[in-house]
Specification:
Elements (H helix, E strand, L loop, with lengths): L4 E4 L7 H13 L4 E4 L6 H18 L3 E4 L2 H7 L3 E4 L6 H8 L4 E6 L2 H10 L3 E5 L15 H10 L4 E4 L17 E4 L1 H4 L4 H19 L1
Parallel strand pairs: 1-2, 1-8, 2-3, 3-4, 4-5, 5-6, 6-7, 7-8
Helix pairs in contact: 1-2, 1-8, 2-3
């Protein structure tokens, strides 16, 4: 599992055709982990879209994670699931999916991070670092808190929330494994090039963290 450039999808900006095209272009550009997030779709609609996205991810060797819905993840044979603080607990997701699947979790405090790790989380998403334009309710997280979380747990920690190629330098020295982005790629007119620029930026940041 490589969390360097983690794309969380948002289909609200797209037709299904343009959505799938954006996903593929982002994967071409270097996305290393992809989370399909659909808050408004029914389970059946979610599964149908997940199957199509999984096929694309398979062509690029990139793991597909499902946001929240452990049932959908299991049904389509996804690589794993990502759960938030109000979703099913990490331990329950792990019990359902088994030891070989990826279970990621959202954390905003050191205490939440430690609890997720103890329950079996494979990685953490921490933020929001900046205000976001997604429909998901966000609470800003200080970079100092992000750094404390990175130091507290032995699993990869990714920053999320309003990040793009022009503002990620604030994360220097934080110890992150990578970044999660939504709008930066999903709203991009050239998602492949945007993904390339983001990945290059993260690699530079990580090299300066050493």
């Amino acid at each position: 599992m490589d969390t360097t450039l983690y794309l969380v999808t948002d289909s609200s900006y797209h037709t299904e055709e343009s959505f799938l095209r954006t996903v593929e272009e982002a994967l071409r550009g270097g996305v290393t982990l992809l989370q399909l997030r659909e808050k408004e779709k029914s389970a059946r609609e979610y599964m149908e879209l997940a199957g199509k996205v999984k096929e694309i991810c398979g062509r690029y060797g990139v793991p597909l994670l499902i946001d929240d819905r452990v049932d959908v993840a299991a049904a389509v044979g996804a690589a794993g699931v990502h759960v938030g603080q109000s979703d099913i607990p990490v331990a329950a997701a792990r019990k359902i999916l088994g030891p070989d699947k990826i279970v990621g979790a959202t954390a905003k405090t050191v205490e939440q991070a430690l609890e997720a790790w103890r329950q079996g989380a494979d990685y953490l998403g921490v933020g929001a670092i900046y205000p976001t334009t997604t429909k998901v309710k966000t609470i800003l997280t200080k970079v100092s808190t992000l750094k404390e979380i990175c130091e507290a747990v032995p699993i990869p920690v990714n920053a999320i929330g309003g990040l793009n190629a022009g503002n990620m330098d604030v994360l220097e020295g934080s110890g992150i494994a990578g970044i999660c982005v939504v709008s930066a790629i999903m709203k991009s007119e050239d998602p492949r090039r945007t993904a390339e620029e983001l990945k290059e930026g993260v690699i530079r940041l990580k090299s300066r963290n050493i």
